[in-house]
């Protein structure tokens, strides 16, 4: 497990470091990075979500129970984080970053580890996890941005954000294709796959470019808060939900694994596009990625076999 986690996380750390170096030595134009973020949010990430959800193979799996566990735990922890906001003494923008760092997950790492643990069955489990958590966290995050982000929105504005958000629309499209048993047209699927594959490296480079270590001291409390929720509270809530749904064996391990993953590059992209604290989000993402090397194997090792 430790070797699998290291192999999955080290390339991510290196890409973040490369982005930091590129921004300060080679590609210093701020306009380039802002347009790269827009490309990732509008095109690459939606392609990733649409393709992965539409092509997921979920046959012969406890998909309903696994999805129920993940959605229940995610919503419960999200509600608790919101309820505890007054105790955090953070402004709205910073809170959106803590919220994302608490509930979002890096599905690339999850698929890599799940495949290493259980082979093709692990990949199928990972597909169910993506189908359950990706739409859930994106809807929750849009609602939190609407309430606490820079652009405070009323009901009509929130509805508009939900029905026009490219990540949510991609999730809905992928789930509809999966539910209706429709395949992506042969000429389109490779293009979607290629675009989706480009989302992770570009997103991680943007995270590295956004890092501002001069503000690191003010990040300590938000990083500790989000990381405590991500690596302790979220897996614990998932384990408890699994007992309610009767989920066991390999499905339980995968559920806890996905809920203990560090936050994803899409967190930073969303923070930039929806008015959150992007530098803090970059700091949370980079820190959790490094912490995940130790935290993810430890959390999964604590799950009863």
From TrEMBL:
GO terms for cellular component: plasma membrane. Keywords: Cell membrane, Membrane, Transmembrane, Transmembrane helix, Transport. The keyword Aminoacyl-tRNA synthetase does not apply. The keyword Ribosomal protein does not apply. It is found in: Cell membrane. It holds the Pfam family Mem_trans. The chain crosses the membrane at residues 63-84, 105-126, 132-150, 162-180, 192-215, 236-260, 280-303. GO terms for biological process: transmembrane transport. Coiled coil: none annotated. It is a multi-pass membrane protein. Belongs to the auxin efflux carrier (TC 2.A.69) family. This is Transporter.
